[in-house]
Amino acid sequence: QSYCHRLQHDMYFLTSTSRLNEQVVDKIVLQLNRVYPQILTNEEAEKFRNPKASLHTRLSDLLKHLQKKGDRHCQEFYRALQINAEQLFNDLPSRKILKTPDSTEIDTDKEQYMLNDRGPVFFLACFSMAAGLALFWYCCNSETQVVGRARRILGFSPIIIGRHVRNICLLYLEDVSRN
């Protein structure tokens, strides 16, 4: 896809409200005017930096002017946009099309959102459910000796459970097993 077609595709995105502010547009125009190869002449640069015209009008005129000049001029605009507004450059619709050319690929932005839309409460609920089911299965199995295995499990957990809490749990399990 040529840079002119990409610029035509991105034109609405770039000219919509609050995407580019005046300072960034002025920096882009100055870069196109001063950097080799000179894309804009001094008169053209003054025209696109005129504060009397609205920012939307100046930006629209600049983009149309660059499209008429050719692919090289549009490419230099993209380079200036990348230097002066990198976040906006990365969010361009044409860049997203270039990143995912095949429709069968997974869109990582959507996939990341889908994986992260559940909060920590969901994780804790799932973890509690799994731990509860495991404890239920362990305690209800008639073939196992609860006290012996519980003593081994609690014996290896002095870091997780304090010593006093562990002793209370062991005493309770021994008392339950006697009854």
Name the descriptors.
Death Domain, Fas; mainly alpha; 179 residues
Task: Note down, in words, how this protein is organized.
The protein has 179 residues and is mainly α. The protein has a domain at 3-97: Death Domain, Fas, CATH 1.10.533.10. It has helices spanning 3-15, 22-34, 42-48, 55-69, 71-84, 86-90, 93-99, 108-116, 120-140, 146-155, 163-178. Helix 1 runs antiparallel to helix 4, helix 2 runs antiparallel to helix 3 and helix 4 crosses helix 5 (71-84). It starts with a helix and ends with a helix. The model is unreliable at 110-115 (pLDDT under 50).
Question: What is the CATH topology of one domain?
Answer: Death Domain, Fas
Helix-strand sequence: HHHHHHHHHHH
Per CATH, the architecture of one domain is: Orthogonal Bundle
Specify the structural class: mainly alpha
Number of strands: 0
Distance between the termini: 80 Å
Envelope shape: rod-shaped
Structure summary:
The chain is mainly α and 179 residues long. 73% of the residues lie in helices and 0% in strands.
What's the helix and strand layout?
Blueprint: H1 3-15, H2 22-34, H3 42-48, H4 55-69, H5 71-84, H6 86-90, H7 93-99, H8 108-116, H9 120-140, H10 146-155, H11 163-178
Helix pairs in contact: 1-4, 2-3, 2-5, 4-5, 10-11
